[in-house]
Design goal:
Elements: H1 2-11, H2 25-37, E1 42-47, E2 50-59, E3 70-76
Antiparallel strand pairs: 1-2, 2-3
């Protein structure tokens, strides 16, 4: 999961940008712990025993008016983009 996330982070910046801000393994562990504490879903997609993607939701805002609102993130391994790994319809 960390490799998938890092690739998405790095592709959003120029190739020779410093690697500061790239998540470390403990960052992902802390995020998953926080999701469990809030009882929020964290799904992992596998193919032939290999992680090919994952998705999770977080609270949208802490204000009471948003207590039933969440935002989601879906990360797919670059080799599996467009193959319905993210729960979307398959290509025609």
């Amino acid at each position: 999961m960390l490799d998938i996330y890092r690739r998405h982070i790095r592709r959003g910046v120029e190739d020779n940008a410093p690697q500061s801000g790239v998540p470390e393994p403990d960052d992902l562990k802390q995020r998953r712990k926080n999701l469990r504490n809030h009882r929020l879903p964290h799904l992992v997609a596998t193919w032939r025993g290999e992680v090919i993607g994952y998705a999770y939701v977080v609270l949208f805002r802490k204000r009471p008016a948003y207590r039933f609102t969440a935002k989601h993130s879906i990360y797919i391994h670059h080799d599996h983009v467009g193959r319905a790994s993210g729960g979307c319809c398959s290509r025609p």
